[in-house]
Amino acid sequence: MARVEEEIENRSELELEEPRLYKVMLLNDDYTSMDFVVDILVNVFHQDAQKANATMFKIHEDGSGLCGVYTYEIAETKVAQVHSLAKEHQFPLRATMEEE
Ligand code: TYC
Questions:
Q1: What is the Å distance from ligand 1's center to 63 Cα?
Q2: 75 lies in which domain range?
Q3: What atom of ligand 1 comes closest to residue 64's alpha carbon?
Q4: pTM of the full predicted structure?
């Protein structure tokens, strides 16, 4: 088979690579209520109540903590959802994303 045909058939190397993954982190602050952070972890990051409680306390103690790992657009959406819900409830809660 001709090389070009072979490449088309096998798809480009780029397409065969795994998607890059991004960690979404929540940052601690002094004003957001613990209950609100737990609600965010349950409803945005789909953690169960026990895990959400543990994650919230870890962030409270360490200053930041991992909430989930996603592809770029999903991670961006999670960050935007956190900021929008925090604004709506007048909390200063911040989320960040970083490549894994
Ligand atoms: N530090 C907050 C408090 O004592 C709770 C909190 C936890 C806030 C995690 C933000 O990402 C956060 N009410």
A1: 9
A2: 19-99
A3: 11
A4: 0.87
